[in-house]
Amino acid sequence: MADNTASLTVVVRNKDKILYSGQAYAVSGVNDRGIFDILPQHESFISLIKDKVTVRKNTREKQEIQIENGILRNYKDKVYIYVNFKS
């Protein structure tokens, strides 16, 4: 049975504003190697990202943000994502 406990702290922002700030169950992104997921207790990780970011608030609810590119950093269950929008 899936755990609905949100245990990542996630901030998605661009240069003007915060697009998402809160707890999440998982974060998915796309880099040059393909789609990847960050779950609680993931190793420290940094990556350039493209296309979209998906914040899974729990196992049933998600928020998808279309982007042009950005950078994602995960450290100790805190995920910071800085993005540019698609034009």
Helix content: under 10%
Instruction: Indicate the CATH class.
Output: Mainly Beta
- Look at the structure and name the CATH superfamily: F0F1 ATP synthase delta/epsilon subunit, N-terminal
Multimeric status of the protein: single chain
Q: Averaging pLDDT over every residue, what do you get?
A: 92
Which topology does CATH recognise?
Answer: ATP Synthase, domain 1
Percent strand: over 45%
N-end to C-end Cα span? 40 Å
How many structural domains are formed by the residues? Answer: 1
Order of helices and strands: EEEEEEE
Summarize the structure.
This protein has 87 residues and is mostly beta strands. Helix content is 0%, strand content 66%.
General description of the model:
There is one protein chain. The termini are far apart. The chain has one domain: ATP Synthase, domain 1. The chain is mostly beta strands and 87 residues long. It has strands spanning 8-13, 18-24, 26-31, 34-38, 45-56, 62-75, 78-84. The protein contains no helices and seven strands. A seven-stranded mixed β-sheet has the order 2-1-7-6-5-3-4, with no helix packed on it. The chain is globular and about 30 Å long.
Which key phrases capture this entry?
87 residues, mainly beta, ATP Synthase, domain 1, 7-stranded mixed beta sheet, 7 strands, 0% helix, 66% strand, globular
